[in-house]
Amino acid sequence: MSTVYFTDIDTTPQMGLLSKVEALVKKAGLEDVIEAGKLVAVKLHFGEYGNLAYIRPNYIKVIADQIKELGGVPFLTDSNTLYKGSRANAADHMKTASLNGFTMESVGAPVVIADGLRGSDEIDVEIEGEYIKKAKIASAIALADALVVVSHFKGHEQTGFGGALKNIGMGSASRAGKMEQHSESKPVVREANCVACGMCERNCPTGAITVQRVARIDYDLCIGCGQCIAMCNYGAMSAGPGGTPESLSKKIAEYALAASKGKKALYISFINNVSPDCDCWHINRPPVVEDIGILASRDPVALDKACIDLVIKRLGYDPFEKAHPGITWHHQLDHAEKIGLGKATYRLQKVACFGR
C-alpha cells in the first residue's frame, strides 16, 4: 500500500502555504528522488493564456529551490499542444510561460519546452502496452534523470479528471504522441485553413503529402506519424476521428508508464481552483469544490485516487461526473494499476507543519 502525504490549506502567521509545500515535499521523499548533478524535469502545465487556474509560480519556486538544495539541476518543462493555441510551438509556449510568471527570475529554474520548436523532438520508449508499443516521449523528458511532476487537479471533459497521470501521460508526449492518444485514424486536412506553404510536404517522412492549391494526403503512404500536424502553423492539419474516452484514458496511462520508465519520480498535486474542465482551455469556469489542500506521493495512481476521494468526500458526490455525464475516470486508474504504475489503495498521512 502506497503512502500519500497531505497538507490542508489552513495557515498561521508562522506557517504559510509556501512553507507547507516545502515541508510536504521533504516528508514525501524528495531527497530519495534527487541525485547531485542530475537533471530534474519539473513537469507542470504553464497555463493556456487566459486560463487562470494553473499552479502559481510561487509554489514551483519552492520545489525548484528544494531540488537545488539537494544538488539537483531543475528545469521547468511541458510539451507543445496538438491543437493550435498559445502553446502550440516553443516560441509561443515560452512566451505564454513568461506571461504567466514562469521565468528564471521568478522561479529560479529555466523553462525548456520538452519536444522542441515544433513539437517534433521525441524519443521512442518501448513499453509493449495494450494500445501503445512505442510511446513518442518528448526528448527533454525522456532524457531527464529524474521527474518531479506537479499537477493541478481538475475535471476533464474526456477522461473525467486530470491529475498526475494525465499530466505526465499526455503532457510528456510529443505532438505526434498526443495524436496517437487522441486519434485512432490518420490526419485530415482542414482546407479552409491551408495556405499551401508546403511545410507539411517538405517534412512528411513518407512523401504522402503533395501541395498545390491545398495539401492532399495519400493515405496509402501515410503512416499517421503526426509530423504534418507538428509542422503546420495554420491549423490546417488535424488529428482524424478519435477513439473512445475509455481508449484515450488507457493510452494516457500507458504513456505515463513510458514517460516515467527507468526514472525516480515524485508526484505533487494541488486541489485548488478545481475547474470542471481541462486547463488547456483559454478560460476557466468557476471551481466545483472549495480548495482542499496539497498532496504528494511516489505513486501517481494512489495520488490521483486520493485526490478524487477527498473531493467526493468534501461534496458528497462526484462533481466531474455531474459536469460531464457519461464520462468516467475509473478507466484511467484501473488501467494504470493493471500495467503496474501504482496502486489505487493508499494510506493518507497528514503532514504536521509547525510554525518556525
Q: Widest sheet: strand order? A: 4-3-2-7-14-15-1-16
| CATH class designation of the largest domain | Alpha Beta
CATH architecture of the largest domain: 3-Layer(aba) Sandwich
Distance between the termini: 32 Å
* CATH topology grouping of the largest domain: Rossmann fold
Beta strand count: 16
The H/E string reads EHHEHEHHEEEHEEEHHEHEEHEHEEHHHE
Descriptive overview:
The protein contains 14 helices and 16 strands. The chain is α/β, with parallel strands linked by helices and 356 residues long. Strand 8 and strand 9 form a beta hairpin. Helix content is 32%, strand content 20%. The protein has helices at 17-27, 30-33, 57-69, 90-99, 104-107, 139-142, 164-169, 175-182, 199-203, 227-231, 245-259, 300-315, 319-323, 330-338, and strands spanning 2-8, 39-43, 73-78, 111-113, 122-126, 134-138, 146-152, 154-156, 160-162, 188-189, 209-211, 215-217, 237-238, 264-271, 293-297, 346-350. The strands form five sheets. It has an eight-stranded mixed sheet with strand order 4-3-2-7-14-15-1-16, with helices on both faces. The protein folds into two domains: 2-182 and 243-350, LarA, N-terminal domain (Rossmann fold); 188-238, Alpha-Beta Plaits, CATH 3.30.70.20. The model has no long low-confidence stretch (mean pLDDT 93). The chain is globular.
